[in-house]
Design a protein that fits this description.
heterodimer; A: 283 residues; alpha/beta; 2-enoyl-CoA Hydratase, Chain A, domain 1; eight-stranded mixed β-sheet; 11 helices; 10 strands; 38% helix; globular; B: 316 residues; 2 domains; 14 helices; 48% helix; 16% strand
Chain lengths: 283, 316
Amino acid sequence: MSWLKKLLPGKLKTTLTGNRKSVPEGLWSKCQACLTVLYHTELTQNCNVCPKCQHHHRISGRARLNWLFESSIWQEVGLEVKPMDRLKFKDSKRYKDRLLDAQNSTGETESLIVGRGLLESKVVVAAAFEFQFMGGSMGAVLGEKFVQGVNAAIAAKAPFLCFTSSGGARMQEGLISLMQMAKTSAALAQLAEHNLPFISILTDPTMGGVSASLAMLGDIILAEPNALIGFAGPRVIEQTVRQKLPEGFQRSEFLLSHGAIDAIVDRRSLRAYLSNVLDKLTS
Amino acid sequence: MNLDYLSFEQELAKLQDRINGLQESQVGTSVELAKEIKVLEKKRLNLTQQIYAQLTIWQTVQVARHPRRPYTLDYIERLFDDFQELHGDRHFADDPAIVGGIAKFNGRAVMVIGQQKGRTIAEKLHRNFGMPRPEGYRKALRLMLLAEKFKLPIITFIDTPGAYPGIDAEERNQSEAIAKNLWVMAKLATPIITVVIGEGGSGGALAIGVGDRIAMLQYSIYSVISPEGCASILWKDAANAPKAAEAMGVTAPQIAKLGLIDEVLPEPLGGAHAAPIAATGVVKDYLAQQLALLTKIPLKTLLTQRYQRLMQFGLS
């Protein structure tokens, strides 16, 4: 037990160890990697990167777009696409209820947020995954919103950006979710025919069907440090090959050294990096 | 337990053994023997009808994975003339889990590509149980671009448990290999027909499965994740695979209902493995019919229709 927890009265202890969302603004946050206790504001002002160990904490899709567009006004794309439960899927819980829970806890209607706004005074369309919404999983709504984002970019003759954070396809939608891989990839092929850039930014984690479609189709593919990126999950691989996975396997640095991505960029310099790249590609 | 038969087919195995035994035996007059064989065969037929008329979803999954089910090379051998296999991705290796090459179909040159499983233990290992590695998808991509260049229609056969979850596959960027195929197939300027002949396992299947027409054999399956994988994630136990298969809706009629495929191809009584030649005939008729239709459509229209089809996946 940390010294802080020992000092805290009982009630506050439970708030800290329980749902992170219930921590009031302005209190303490603990770095998930080095466990350093930080001022919450210190962390948010640092793009949710730990100033001590540089660990990049996951951020919500909406926070990502607000950060990208520097809190200037941006228009949301595809808001009218609403989730549906075609299979009436049920495991220990109904899919319908899982969707409701996710909507209540995140305040989002689905796992992708798409916006059109200004990056350094140039119009861009950007999509950001919301990992807290059913693991950022890709279903029919995500696919449709992504395509609408691509179409908005084509209409505005603007670059398209995507920040992925996803466990993969959404099993609760059966084969429909698999087909979103084909759908989103086809839309990106259409974008390419217009010679508009697609920048794919892989954040922790980018796995499964999302990795094996839209995420890996960037003209430029960037990753945040130490993000888990791959097709098969590490546990599945370990069980299949029955050997220990190499150190750093499926992390950004591993992908960079294997030639899979263009660069790893620290979140604090990412906006400038993106703007710089787009300046060259669209000059 | 006869391993060539599924657990719910064991009575059929026994009947078949008895028929085989009688056919080889010299006891009694040939007239009596023929009569007895006829009775047993009638019995076998009735039992097959009974079993296959009420196949559960999980039993269908088992039939899709049947050890005697015809594989891609079986179809290639029976459907095409002059198949010339083309190997390798020109970068790293040749992946035996995906086969491909040029062949003649009803006199017309075509490109044919499919995942290949093995039948004996040695073959299974050689084919990696039909689980492709990145170089398999890259070989398929190379062959598809070759087909586009020389205006050959493409026919793909899907039969894989899924992409190979191995360290090496990730090192060589499995994700990119699959994604690239989806990207290219969306715009490839030649007709593409896909037939799911056995197991359509996830991204590993889809990587050769974007096309103008998609058909599934009646007892084949197609799913976003294997029923076992889905069960171990959502039910925390792979033993719940039958439940997961039902919830996801992996059979051909279920997927047809979602509007994701064009046609369910009926299999002969007892499944494709019971009458491989008849099963081949069904596939042949379908391919001939669709090839004739697709090759008449101007390429630009074909590509627009393909794109529109992809865009409505999940909406209708």
